[in-house]
Amino acid sequence: MFKTTLLFFVTALAEIIGCYLPYLWLRRGGNILLLLPAAASLALFVWLLTLHPAASGRVYAAYGGVYVMTALLWLRYVDGAKLATTDWVGAIVALAGMLIIISGWKSY
């Protein structure tokens, strides 16, 4: 379960970076060359999702929980926004949902 969770966090970072770099280009006047590492990051994201042994729908559902937590950590540490208690509670609930989903993967 730890390995799967860690893989989900790496996957989420690849997705967020792949979306953040075009954001920097479009909204913050960044260089258009940011699209090259963005495309590579999104390709990495897709490949990482294929490394899970479960059916794709289960992988996407479980991944969502980790994505919520990772996005909030990005918001806090990259964007510098203060998180509310409800942000943390929501992230914990989402992670709990992910753990419930992956705990049943071996039964299929």
From TrEMBL:
The chain crosses the membrane at residues 6-25, 32-51, 57-75, 87-105. This is YnfA family protein. Belongs to the UPF0060 family. PANTHER family: UPF0060 MEMBRANE PROTEIN YNFA. It is found in: Cell membrane. Its main location: membrane. Keywords: Cell membrane, Membrane, Transmembrane, Transmembrane helix. It comes from Rouxiella silvae. It is a multi-pass membrane protein. HAMAP family: UPF0060. GO terms for cellular component: plasma membrane. It comes from the Bacteria. InterPro entries: UPF0060. The keyword Translocase does not apply.
